[in-house]
Write a structure and sequence with these properties.
There is one protein chain. The chain is α/β, with parallel strands linked by helices. It has an 8-stranded mixed beta sheet, sandwiched between helices. Strand 4, helix 8 and strand 5 form a beta-alpha-beta unit. It is globular. The protein binds zinc ion. Zinc ion binds next to helix 9.
Length: 251
Amino acid sequence: MNAPERTRYEKQIALSQIGPEGQARLAAGAIAIIGCGALGSAQAQILVRAGVGSVRLVDRDVVERSNLHRQMLFDEDDARVARPKVEAAAQKLARANSDCRLEARHIEANPRTLPELIAGCDLVLDATDNVRTRLNIDEACRRARLPWIYGGVLGTQGVMAPMPVGAPCLRCLFGEPPAPDETPDIAQSGVLASIVVAIASLQATAALRFLVGNPPPRQLVTMDIWDMSLRRISLTAGPRPGCDCAPQTAL
Ligand SMILES: [Zn+2]
């Protein structure tokens, strides 16, 4: 590590949890952030500034005025010209840390595109806004044997869970998802910017822990930012019998 790098990260290297070795691991790390809205903006800010070596941003949307209250990488100019979110984000992040290899992918993450979108990465962050895409991320990461970090927000509440390799799948954790038109979304319920940043911070911290080789415990963290309450539930159960994610046992 050269002198300018040491200076940039000196307050982070001073942490016993990171140190020079952890910082070098971050520099060698590659991640994909699926979704570049509010969660993705906050995750990317933290992880690019922390010195993660390679960050791939994936999103098919453009910036809209109604995004600005919570999506912290975007501004009024981006909304005025309906700029692709990944393009606006990558440009701003490059100004924050020009050493990070940033890749902007203006494309939908679906079962067909995900294998290529996560290829070459060490881990994947969920920054999406729907259950269907999360199930697809779960499936793609399971096949690629990559850890990923689940996160979701609605109203003033949020949830996150690290999903290490070999852990039971999302269906085992939550059961079968309701139909899309039965799932509440932020168009109906609204969302507060501070809960998004809080959940993104937990996800980014989990990502840092995976990358430095000290993975977070298997747990579900739920938070209501308005009540200022946080709950942790240890995830100890194995896969549900019969689920595809259960390890195949020899007969
Ligand atoms: Zn399962």
